[in-house]
Amino acid sequence: MNDNFRIYYTSSGFTSVGKINKHDNFYEINYCLNGTNTYHLPDTKQQYSLRSREILLINKNTRHIYNSEKKYEVCSLLFTREFIGYSLPEAFFNFDFLSIFADNPLFNLSKDIFNRTRIENLIKKLLQEKRQDVFSALRVRNAITEILILLHNTKITADDKFSKTNVISRIAGYVENNFFEDINLHSLAAQYSINYPYLSSIFSKQMGISFNKYLNRIRLEKCAEVLKKQNVSISAACFECGFNDLANFYRSFKCYFGISPLKYKKQYCRKT
Predict the structure, then answer these.
(1) Which part of the chain is CATH 2.60.120.280?
(2) In sequence order, which residues have a C-beta less than 8 Å from that of residue 162 and are 6 or more positions away?
(3) What percentage of the chain's residues is helix, strand, coil (to nearest 5)?
(4) Cα angle vertex 154, ends 44, 32, to 5°?
(5) Residues 190-225: pLDDT tens digits?
(6) Rounded to whole angstroms, how far apart are CA atoms 25 and 7?
(7) Whether 47 contacts 121, CB under 8 Å
(8) Which end of the chain has fewer CB atoms surrounding its CB within 10 Å, N or C?
(9) Phi/psi at 230 (5° precision)
């Protein structure tokens, strides 16, 4: 169709299986329609098992070997920078549209119904693209560009989820190490430059408990450990663990452990 674009449909028994492939200056999008195919990248020592509804991107000038012991169907789209041209995001925002190929990433679209359906439809259109008219190259270019945009969106969503999890993990760790301080989610939201209602919402979703309940639980569990020391009074343990109201501490402790702090301390001291 074009010297700067190639499309391949491969299946079980394809003759290039097991051979080293290297497509100079060509970026490669591999979408597995069925089965499993194994890719080896000898230069980077990476290995991928490409399964149904997964996409593997292979950067230009990258040697790779693919093999399979089972039935498989893979559609491969190869194109050069010259073919795809430069997108508007690159022109206006200094954004490298093909940077997504940098680490030869693997995308699992099995649960991403929206993007998977759109990408599959675009690939089907490319496989059916047989007309050699003046607009054929433009149709192919637009389809590949849209696939790349969808993959960028998928990556951004995945990175965002990882970022959220990372922030919540760091906040939870901070609470465990600084439970005795005057901690509140408003100050932590400001510290991490995150909107307070949003942080409160994602904390509850990630941890399965509100921030205040989590903080209270950590303090109560730490306080129970302190109460095991014979020379520490209940009031001292209360204030040492971040509580500033003794009556509220008594109520919270009994509600959480089913026993008052005094009885808890007496029971533990008898055992020791």
Answers:
(1) 5-161
(2) none
(3) 50, 20, 30
(4) 60
(5) 777 677 888 898 899 888 999 999 999 999 999 999
(6) 15
(7) no
(8) C
(9) -65, -30
Helix (H) or strand (E) run with residue 111 in it: none
153's CB contacts (< 8 A; 6+ apart) are 115
CB 258: neighbour CB atoms within 10 A?
Answer: 9
- Could you tell me the fold of the domain covering 215-271? Arc Repressor Mutant, subunit A (1.10.10)
Determine the topology of domain 5-161 in CATH: Jelly Rolls (2.60.120)
Tens of pLDDT, residue by residue over 147-173, are 988 888 777 666 666 566 778 888 998
Q: What is the DSSP code string of 187-251?
A: HHHHHTT--HHHHHHHHHHHHSS-HHHHHHHHHHHHHHHHHTSTT--HHHHHHHTT---HHHHHH
Q: Which of 51, 54, 101, 96 is nearest to 78 (CA)?
A: 101
Structure tokens at 132: 């050699």
Cα within 13 Å of Cα(28), Cβ side: 25
| DSSP bridge pairs for 76 | 8, 30
Containing 160, the helix (H) or strand (E) segment is helix 136-178
User: CA-to-CA distance for 178 and 24, rounded, in angstroms?
Assistant: 55
**Could you give the CA distance from residue 107 to residue 155 in angstroms, rounded to a whole number?**
8
β-partners of residue 67 are 38
H or E segment and range at residue 1: none
CA 25 centroid distance within chain = 29
Q: Calculate what percentage of the chain has a pLDDT beyond 90.
A: 30
Structure tokens at 170: 């760091």
